[in-house]
Write a structure and sequence with these properties.
It contains 12 helices and 13 strands. By secondary structure, it is of the alpha/beta class.
């Protein structure tokens, strides 16, 4: 072996050794683990941690804290994680008002933020950032798909309602962007509201032929139960957040037959999704939700990037995230220029499988949908 050959061989060994040496990574997960929205955060956490466990990557440490669905608590936790815990990556926030309180400051301090859920329009357009990646959707997306479905279903006059916070405003904006009919009334409720008698009375008197609503977590449970008891028979349309796996069991048979829109469903036919649904059930004893699927995908995106580059090499790690080189439970998945997903969004119907309420895909509302704000993003 000549000197050049020996040198090349030595470099190859060094390259393999460097690739094999992992760098410890600390992830800060701020999510909702108590109160009315706890089921959403718990599912996102459990999906994320399942992916980390399955990877066998012992160099990833996850610090988990409960934001109690309070912006000031979320900010305090983020400050602690960045300054004291020295996290490299932040994730976990469910609610858009909390995301708006935390994300801009975090990414401007050089941290990466990977969103398992909240996708406010303000962070997709002019407020985008090179270190911010949304692995779920942009807030408008599932509501846009609901508007497209309403057109196909022949609805001409929708009553629309959502909570008065950033995601609620994005929801109704998204629905109206695609819905071609009239809006009978547009109502914003209080965030966390549980009594919908006044809104249901407005719906009854509205003359609408359909109701589109976005009320995630406990809000959706309360509304659906009260709506069923009211005897109002105007068809409901909603995003998956109001008909997700954890919510359906609480709502009961009142949800049967309702159409909802989602970028994920447990019956998406690909190997990654089948394995995820099976392993999640085995690990936690329940079917996964939309939030669990998003947590799982977020962790696998992160892990795929860490396999290519250390987080300390910000440019290389960012490029690895942008490549989205992982097996998404959604099947095809890629990022747009503003680091938000490009993906298909489905129409699902609430059905009963044995004694369990769940969803099945009955159509595709939007194909390869990005978002309405990407053109305003200048990184």
């Amino acid at each position: 072996m000549n000197l050049i050959t020996k040198s090349l061989a030595a470099l190859a060994v060094l390259g393999m050794t460097a690739a094999a040496i992992a760098e410890p990574v600390k992830v800060g997960m701020i999510t909702t683990l108590s109160g009315g929205g706890a089921s959403l955060g718990i599912d996102a956490r459990d999906g994320f941690m399942l992916a980390v466990k399955q990877s066998g990557n012992t160099d990833v440490e996850v610090v988990i804290e409960d934001d109690q669905r309070k912006p000031d608590v979320a900010v305090q936790l983020a400050d602690k994680m960045i300054q004291s815990d020295k996290v490299d990556i932040l994730t976990g926030i469910i609610w858009s008002n909390l995301a708006m309180a935390v994300v801009p400051a975090a990414v401007n301090q050089g941290k990466f933020y990977l969103s398992v859920n909240a996708g406010p329009s303000a962070l997709a357009g002019k407020g985008c950032h090179k270190n911010y990646f949304n692995v779920a959707w942009q807030n408008d997306n599932l509501h846009e798909a609901a508007g497209a479905y309403a057109n196909d279903a022949g609805y001409k006059n929708s009553f629309v309602l959502a909570p008065n916070y950033p995601a609620g405003k994005d929801a109704l904006t998204g629905y109206k962007r695609f819905f071609k009919g009239d809006v009978a009334n547009e109502v914003y409720t209080q965030l966390g509201q549980t009594d919908y008698a006044a809104e249901i009375a407005q719906i009854r008197a509205s003359g609408a032929d359909s109701v589109f609503f976005f009320l995630p977590g406990g809000m959706g449970i309360a509304f659906m139960k009260q709506y069923a008891q009211s005897g109002v028979d105007i068809p409901l349309i909603g995003p998956a957040f109001s008909f997700d796996q954890g919510i359906l069991q609480a709502v009961g048979d009142a949800a049967l037959g309702v159409k909802n829109t989602s970028q994920w469903s447990k019956d998406i036919d690909n190997a990654a999704n089948k394995a995820f649904v099976e392993s999640f059930q085995a690990e936690y004893g329940r079917l996964p939700s939309l939030y669990a699927s998003q947590g799982f995908d977020t962790a696998n995106l992160m892990l795929s990037a860490l396999a290519k580059a250390p987080v300390s090499d910000a440019n290389a790690f960012r490029a690895a995230l942008e490549a989205a080189d992982f097996d998404s439970v959604r099947g095809k998945f890629s990022f747009g220029p503003n680091h938000h997903p490009i993906q298909d969004i489905y129409v699902r119907e609430v059905v009963k499988e044995g004694d369990v309420l769940t969803n099945k895909i009955v159509g595709t509302a939007l194909t390869d949908r990005g978002d309405a704000y990407a053109a305003d993003c200048k990184m």
